[in-house]
Amino acid sequence: MSRLRSLDTPTAPRHGRGHTLPLKVGTRGSPLALWQTQHFLGIISGFCPVLRDAEAFEEHVISTEGDRVQDKRLADIGGKGLFAKEIHEALLDGQVDFAVHSLKDLETELPPGIVLACLLKREDPRDAIILGPVCGAPDRRDPLACIPQGALIGTASVRRQSQILAMRPDLRCEIIRGNVQTRLGKVRNGDFAASFLALAGLKRMGLEREAGLLLDADAMVPAAGQGIVGVTVRATDVELHELLGAIEDREARIVATAERALLGALDGSCRTPIGAFARLRPDGTISLTGLLARPDGSYLLRHTAEGAAADAARLGRELGDRLRREAPADILA
Ligand SMILES: NCc1[nH]cc(CCC(=O)O)c1CC(=O)O
């Protein structure tokens, strides 16, 4: 059995026993989750020669509550981290050595003993609208006008619901669930006039052509971490933590830190529409936009703050605090 030697140095004892291969990777079983896991394994094995072997990894598909509950709005089953609990448990039990997540599905406060060791380069963070047969071709000057008056929009996201209803109060929103492919099918067969999907997921599935309309991040503020893949490990696993840290994308870490600090400061439930989107500029400053809204779109509060990349966490916290202070009492009740 070969060992993970890439980090064996004279100081090796601080890495603990060292891992033997295969490394066990935890993932959800949706096509998108499996794609993201393979993508990550490709990156890590490109960096670490000993992991290029076909048998270097063992994939463990873990079903989460979020995968099993297909009918209710996620908010109503009440959990944060609904897509990760079972995966965190497998990590802490030693059934897996690391786990690959969509960062936006990962709660801001991870359980004790688990750390986010690696973030991959962000895919396009925008939301796409999937247009069904009842929608006409979008017009450049007024793209949303192609959705018929009063049409039914499928979304399980109060963030998307609040923002689309603020732009088009005549529309109705109902819950659509299922993986990317299932949702596309429900729009195609007319269950919904249109729906939303993250462009990142569509691109990764080779389904970018299904994006009928792309919404600018200013018009539809994305979720914190949207488009970023994150990898968790046990906090005690210094060896894997260091290896993962070496391949992470610096920009993704900075923007995710700001966005997740904003989300954490608001401490909303998943019933609270919250958006958070940061950009890193060439001069090393970041611009962070936060959105807090009422689910019916009757109130939207949006602010943008700027600061140094090194202050990403503080910038996010302060902008979150500002949104909280300014919002009407019912929104974070
Ligand atoms: N909540 C489900 C989920 N988690 C991550 C993505 C897409 C990929 C990403 O945002 O990184 C999706 C689907 C969607 O929101 O359309």
How is this fold's topology laid out?
Elements: E1 23-27, H1 31-47, E2 57-61, H2 65-68, H3 85-93, E3 98-102, E4 114-119, E5 127-131, E6 152-154, H4 158-167, E7 172-174, H5 180-188, E8 194-198, H6 199-204, E9 213-215, E10 229-234, H7 238-247, H8 250-266, E11 274-280, E12 285-293, E13 300-308, H9 312-326
Parallel strand pairs: 1-2, 1-3, 6-7, 6-8
Antiparallel strand pairs: 3-10, 4-10, 5-8, 5-9, 11-12, 12-13
The structure holds the ligand NCc1[nH]cc(CCC(=O)O)c1CC(=O)O.
The ligand NCc1[nH]cc(CCC(=O)O)c1CC(=O)O binds next to strand 8 and helix 6.
Domain Porphobilinogen deaminase N-terminal: 23-241
Protein name: Porphobilinogen deaminase
Pathway: Porphyrin-containing compound metabolism; protoporphyrin-IX biosynthesis; coproporphyrinogen-III from 5-aminolevulinate: step 2/4
Span of the ends, CA to CA: 55 Å
Tell how many strands the DSSP assignment holds.
13
Order of helices and strands: EHEHHEEEEHEHEHEEHHEEEH
Which structural class do the helices and strands define? alpha/beta
The largest sheet, given as strand count, sense and whether it forms a barrel, is:
5 strands, mixed
Bound ligands, named by name, code or SMILES:
the ligand NCc1[nH]cc(CCC(=O)O)c1CC(=O)O
Poorly predicted runs: 8-16
* Strand order within the widest beta sheet: 2-1-3-10-4
Q: How big a fraction of the residues is strand?
A: 15-25%
